[in-house]
Amino acid sequence: MTKTDFNKNQELIQIGNITVRLAKEYEVDANWMGNDLASHQLRASWLRLSDDDLPMNPRLVGKPGVGKTTLAVAVARELNFPVYLMQGTSDTRPDDLIITPVITEGKQISYVASPLVTAMLVGGVCILDEGNRMSEKSWASLASLLDHRRYVDSVIAGIRLHAHKEFRFVTTMNDDSSVYDLPEYIQSRLNPQIFLDFADIETEARIVRYAVPYIEENLLTLLVSFLSIAHKYDESYSVRDGIQIAKYAQRLRSLNKELTLPKALKTSVYSILGEEALKYFPPDEQMQNENNPSSRPNLRPV
């Protein structure tokens, strides 16, 4: 095993004769208000029951915007792990996942560790976001990390890097048509699968209210009712879409108090989701009851 020495500020490490710069922690706050079962399953997959026991490498699967990354960050923070986020893309190369050489101003080669390798070395959590957008070639470079060997090889730096015993890994995977099918030998290393679906209407309301605390209550009622109807018809409008709709609709109202709540919401939905989404609004006369939050209309697509 290559000897790794950390300096006091954890920005640079010495690996053999090579100095490597570490990636920065992912410092965005996350508050999970969704499915308690999903968070329990993620904690269980990362649990070590003995010194020799290895944490599992779960994958969070669901439609875009259901909170997969938020869940991973929130659970990692609750467990007091440093968090490192790496974005998977179709052009992610194996070197991008491990160590990248950079030419400095003095025309020297400097080596920079990816967020994944940084998490490996410091014993943190790596969240590989949208992992099924990466090619098999990139995943193949991680095969030895995701089994009992727990190491990766950097061809560029000519070193082998072993993971800290507290290193945890999770990948999020969107359930849509714009992704790769992973080969079986990779899928078998990414277990358990934890599935996330759209939240119920009460949870979506709490999430939107948390993200947009200044939203008018009646506007929130109309918004989550719209989202609930869309979900029943298998539309992929997520709570992330809902947050953007809420922010824009409330801004429209703030600039023009004469603009009704239904009009502000429809304008926002049209601007963010497009005209097709407007069919999930009830008839206009049903939306006029905006001053009575206890009276929710019986919404039907039109």
Count of β-strands:
12
- Distance separating the two termini: 65 Å
Q: Could you list the spans in which at least 5 consecutive residues all have pLDDT below 50?
A: 1-9, 290-302
- The name CATH uses for the topology of the largest domain is Rossmann fold
What is the ordering of alpha helices and beta strands? EEEHEHEHEEHEHEEEHEHHHHH
Q: Calculate Rg over CA atoms.
A: 23 Å
CATH-assigned homologous superfamily of the largest domain: P-loop containing nucleotide triphosphate hydrolases
Largest sheet: 5 strands, mixed
**Shape label:** elongated
Q: Report helical residue fraction.
A: 25-40%
State mean pLDDT (0 to 100 scale).
87
Q: Name the structural class.
A: alpha/beta
Tally of alpha and pi helices? 11
Quaternary structure state of the chains depicted: single chain
The CATH architecture of the largest domain would be 3-Layer(aba) Sandwich
Q: How many domains make up the 3D coordinates?
A: 2
Strand order of the largest sheet: 1-2-3-7-6
Beta-strand proportion = 15-25%
GO molecular function: ATP binding; ATP hydrolysis activity
Organism: Fluviispira multicolorata
Protein name: AAA domain-containing protein
Region (Disordered): 283-302
Structure described in brief:
With 302 residues, the protein is α/β, with parallel strands linked by helices.
